[in-house]
Amino acid sequence: MPQHPIPVVSGVAWFDDSGSPVNAHAGCIVREGDRFFLFGEYKTDDRNAFAGFSCYSSPDLATWTFEGLALPPQPDGLLGPDRIGERPAVMRCPSTGRYVMFLHADDLGYTDPHIAFAVADDLRGPYVLGGPVTFAGEPLRRWDVGSFQDDDGTGYLLVHEGDVYRLAEDYTSAAEKVAAGVAPGGESPGMIRAGGRYHLLFSNKTSWERNDNYVLSAPSPAGPWEPSGLLAPAGTRTHDSQCGFVFVDAGPEAPPMYLGDRWSFPRQASAATSVWQPLHLDDAGVPRLGPFLPAWLPTSGEAVDLLADAAVLPAAADLTAGRSHVTAPFAIDAGDRVALMGTVGPDSGYARVTLESSAADGDGDRLTAIVDFYSGVAADGIRFLTGPLAAGRYRLRVEATGERPTWSTKDGTPYGATDCRVRTSAVRVLPAT
Q1: Residues 199, 205, 209, 211: what is their CA dihedral angle, to the nearest 10 degrees?
Q2: Given strand 242-247, what is the order of strands in its sheet?
Q3: Using CA atoms, how far apart are residues 366 and 243, in angstroms rounded to an integer?
Q4: Could you say which DSSP state residue 290 is in?
Q5: Is the previous residue joined to 224 through a cis bond, with omega within 30 degrees of 0?
Q6: Is the pLDDT of residue 331 over 70?
Q7: Could you tell me if 271 and 370 are in contact, meaning their C-beta atoms sit under 8 angstroms apart?
Q8: Are 6 and 59 contacting, i.e. CB atoms less than 8 angstroms apart?
């Protein structure tokens, strides 16, 4: 770990070592030695077809290097053209030493579901698709999938609606269904062993919308599973996220880490972000999320006030079709970062945020990002954050695109923003640390 830990900042775009957005959604983290490897869905904005599963590495869970596509689109088969690939979950199989990736494969209409697996000798990949996971000789034709590895190396598959399968010794098939239907209506499962018990995390089914996720607890993966209440404070919609994975190997003093997704349909590649938060055990030993921490140290779970010494620059605006942009000029020293502050809400849409050099510098655009200002729960905070910048004069331009996230579920229930407003409050310059 670095001498001065770097905080995780939730709900904003992250940029890798090349300046590109980190594109790894609904995935997992695996630790190998002193590095962490993040696997996730490599999304595009134009369609929901499988574009690959990405792999990123990091020394600190906050700065990321793109390692490439661990599993690219296939020429045919379960992950071939016009197919969907979701929720990669990677575990090292103790009996073979190989890495096994589990995933949901489907057609674009979600009518041909399979839980599939791929294997690799190197954690980074490339992974070779092995076919469907079978149980009792038949393919597992299910949707949302998660994984859990117990202390003794036993592997489990977690499936929507609350089915739990114990994996065979080589991790390529399911040997036993140890629990069935314990979470009717639940999806995006995750599991943690804590407080002497096992805990399953589930989201409710609201399509791309966020909701109040919940917890089930049991003395073993086989149950009996009992409701243990909400994962996060009621009404927060799990801090505007959907559960997906719990990481427990960040360090000796590190808390378990909740990995959640803040989906943004249809801007899944350019505007969806991650919500990572520390988990704590309540008095009953059940994992919970506390109040939302915008920034925190993964080594300790300690909150970090990024804005404590930040200069405030005026950039208040309510951007609509009639007033489509606001610009804030500023000068910074080497290593400074810039944050855009704003308000999310039910009537808000997408913004295009562009960091430009000033005319005097003459270097043109530095960075452009799409930011989603929609939320079912109104809140103020950081909406965009750069990495460390070179010294110079800059402009931050915020433009309302006129687009808004909107969709409906399979039964026609509408969700999403009612308008495309973008509310900004200020630009903050964070001094180099």
Answers
A1: -40
A2: 242-247, 257-262, 273-281, 287-289
A3: 33
A4: -
A5: yes
A6: yes
A7: yes
A8: no
End-to-end Cα separation, the chain, in angstroms = 17
Q: Is the dihedral of CA 124, 129, 135, 137 positive or negative?
A: negative
Mean pLDDT score, 115-134: 98
pLDDT on residue 3: 46
Per-residue model confidence as pLDDT tens digits over 383-403:
999 999 999 999 999 999 999
Q: Identify the three-state secondary structure at position 97.
A: coil
3-state secondary structure at position 121 = coil
Higher pLDDT, 365 or 424: 424
Taking alpha carbons only, the member of 259, 291, 290, 288 closest to residue 276 is: 259
SS (H, E, C) 245-279: EEECCCCCCCCCEEEEEECCCCCCCCCCEEEEEEE
Instruction: Please report where in the chains the tokens 């969907």 appear, as a residue.
Output: 84
pTM here is 0.95
Tokens 């804590």 locate to: 194
Query: Is 101 within 8 Å of 110 (Cβ atoms)?
Result: no
Give the C-alpha separation, 150 to 139, whole Å: 24
The pLDDT value recorded for residue 324 is: 80
Domains in the chain, ordered, with CATH? 8-296 (2.115.10.20), 311-430 (2.60.120.260)
Q: Which two tokens stand for residue 120?
A: 């690799």
Question: Left if phi > 0, otherwise alpha if psi is -120 to 50, otherwise beta: which for 46?
Answer: alpha
In this prediction, residues 418-428 reach a mean pLDDT of 96
Are the C-beta atoms of 127 and 151 separated by less than 8 Å? no
pLDDT at 2 over 80: no
Six token digits for residue 179: 């629990």
What is the pLDDT averaged over residues 8-18? 95
SS (H, E, C) 304-342: CCCCCCCEEEEEEEEECCCCCEEEEEEEECCCCEEEEEE
pLDDT one-digit tens code per residue, 286-297 = 999 999 999 999
DSSP track, 178-245? EE-SSSTTEEEEEEEEETTEEEEEEEE--TTS----EEEEESSTT---EEEEESSSTTSHHHH-EEEE
Average pLDDT of 300-324? 90
Distance between CA atoms of 73 and 76, rounded to whole angstroms? 9
Name the residue among 346, 314, 335, 349 with its Cα closest to residue 422.
349
Q: How far apart are CA 256 and CA 287, in angstroms?
A: 9
